[in-house]
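Key result, reporting period 2: structure in, sequence out.
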C-alpha cells in the first residue's frame, strides 16, 4: 500500500505540530507495511527529493504566497506523477493550495483528509475561500478529525458528518530516552523541585497573557518553554506586572524538554481560542503522568484533559479561574497525583502511536476496497 501525503511544509524545513503528526503517522504505519511519500513546498530555490526517517520527501519551490499560503506552479506536474503510483492520496487541512491542486488535477484515487483545524484567523478571506473549501471537502472520500470535541464544535464539519471519523493523534513514549541524573539536577537547581510547565510556540491563541495575569503574587514557579511571535509582548507584560516567578527558557532540545516533563508538578495550557485544535503539549503531559489545567474551547484540549478526572478545566481568558485551578493543584498534592495517574492511563488507552497507526491503516484499506468495488461495478 502506497500513500502520498501533501501539505504546505514538512521536515526538515519546518517542525510544526502538523508536520510532526504526519511524521509520527508515517513512521508508525511504516512498521505495518505502508509505504509513504510526501510532497511539500519549500522556501528554498532547489527542487529536490530527500530522505527523512526512511521515506521520500519531494520538495517543490514556492513561487508566491497569498495570505501566508504558499503556491507552487511546479507542484501540479509533480503531484500528477506521484499520484499515479499511489494507492491513497492523503491531504492535510487547512491548506487552500491543496484544494486547487486536487480539483485541477482531477485525482482518480481514494482520498482522505486529516482535518487538523478550522480556519479561525482569516475571517474575511474565508468568505472568499469558502466555496472552494466546500467543493474540496465534498469531493474527497473521507475526512478524519483528531477528537470528537472538535467534530462536535466545527460548523464546517457539521456538513460532512456522514464521511468523517475520529482518529486521535498519538505520541510514542520512549522509556529509553529518560533523562540523565545530571540534566535533571541542572533543572532542579535552575527552577526548583516543584513547578508548573507550559510547552508550545508562543502564539496569539495560547492564552499566555492570561497565565501571566494569573501568576501575579503566586508563590510557585512557572516554566514557559518555546519561542514565537508574541514573546516580546509576553515578557513586557510580565515585567510591567512585576511577575518574577515565570521563567521564559526559550526553545529547548528534546532532551531538555523531556527532563522538564519528568520534573514538573503539573502542565498548564491556557489556550483560549479554537485555533488550538488539539494540544500536543497536553498529550505530552498526560504521557508523563502529570495533572493538567486547560480551558474549555470545544476542541481536543478537553478530550485529552477531562475535568476533575485528569486535571482541571477552566473558562477561557479568565485569570481568576486559572489562578484558582493552579492554587488548588499546588495545595492538594494527593489529588494532583491521582489526576496525573488517570491522565497517563487515558494516554495508554487512547493516544498511543500504535492505536493511531492501526486506525489509519484500517481506514486506508477500506477506502481502497471501496474504490475497487466501485470500479468493478461500473
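The corresponding designed sequence is given below.
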Amino acid at each position: 500500500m502506497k500513500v502520498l501525503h501533501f501539505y504546505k511544509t514538512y521536515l526538515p524545513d519546518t517542525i510544526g505540530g502538523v508536520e510532526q503528526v504526519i511524521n509520527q503517522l508515517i513512521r508508525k504505519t511504516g512498521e505495518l507495511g505502508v509505504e509513504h511519500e510526501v510532497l511539500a513546498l519549500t522556501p528554498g530555490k532547489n527542487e529536490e527529493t530527500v530522505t527523512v526517517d526512511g521515506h521520500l520527501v519531494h520538495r517543490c519551490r514556492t513561487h508566491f504566497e497569498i495570505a501566508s499560503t504558499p503556491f507552487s506552479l511546479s507542484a501540479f506536474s509533480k503531484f500528477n506523477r506521484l499520484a499515479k503510483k499511489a494507492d491513497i492520496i492523503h491531504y492535510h487541512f487547512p491548506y487552500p493550495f491543496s484544494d486547487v491542486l486536487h480539483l485541477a488535477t482531477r485525482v482518480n484515487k481514494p482520498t482522505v483528509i486529516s482535518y487538523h483545524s478550522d480556519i479561525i484567523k482569516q475571517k474575511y478571506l474565508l468568505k472568499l475561500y469558502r466555496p472552494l473549501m466546500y467543493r474540496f471537502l465534498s469531493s474527497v472520500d473521507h475526512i478524519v478529525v483528531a477528537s470528537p470535541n472538535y467534530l462536535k464544535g466545527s460548523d464546517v464539519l457539521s456538513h460532512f458528518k456522514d464521511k468523517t471519523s475520529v482518529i486521535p493523534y498519538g505520541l510514542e513514549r520512549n522509556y529509553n530516552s529518560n533523562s540523565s541524573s545530571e540534566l535533571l539536577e541542572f533543572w532542579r537547581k535552575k527552577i526548583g523541585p516543584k513547578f508548573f510547565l507550559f510547552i508550545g510556540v508562543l502564539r496569539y491563541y495560547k492564552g499566555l497573557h492570561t497565565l501571566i495575569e494569573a501568576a501575579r503574587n503566586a508563590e510557585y514557579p512557572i516554566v514557559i518553554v518555546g519561542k514565537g511571535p508574541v514573546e516580546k509582548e509576553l515578557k513586557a507584560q510580565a515585567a510591567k506586572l512585576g511577575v518574577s516567578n515565570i521563567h521564559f527558557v526559550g526553545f529547548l532540545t528534546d532532551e531538555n524538554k523531556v527532563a522538564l516533563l519528568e520534573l514538573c508538578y503539573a502542565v498548564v495550557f491556557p489556550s483560549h481560542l479554537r485555533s488550538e485544535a488539539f494540544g500536543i503539549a497536553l498529550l505530552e503531559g498526560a504521557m508523563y503522568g502529570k495533572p493538567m489545567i486547560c480551558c474549555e474551547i470545544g476542541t481536543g484540549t478537553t478530550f485529552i484533559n477531562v475535568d476533575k478526572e485528569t486535571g482541571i478545566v477552566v473558562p477561557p481568558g479568565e485569570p481568576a479561574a486559572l489562578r484558582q485551578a493552579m492554587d488548588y493543584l499546588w495545595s492538594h498534592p494527593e489529588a494532583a497525583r491521582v489526576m496525573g495517574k488517570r491522565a497517563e492511563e487515558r494516554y495508554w488507552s487512547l493516544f498511543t502511536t500504535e492505536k493511531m497507526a492501526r486506525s489509519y491503516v484500517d481506514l486506508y484499506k477500506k477506502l481502497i476496497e471501496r474504490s475497487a468495488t466501485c470500479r468493478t461495478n461500473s
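The first strand starts at residue 2 and ends at 7. The chain has a mean pLDDT of 94. This case is discussed further under Risks and Mitigation.
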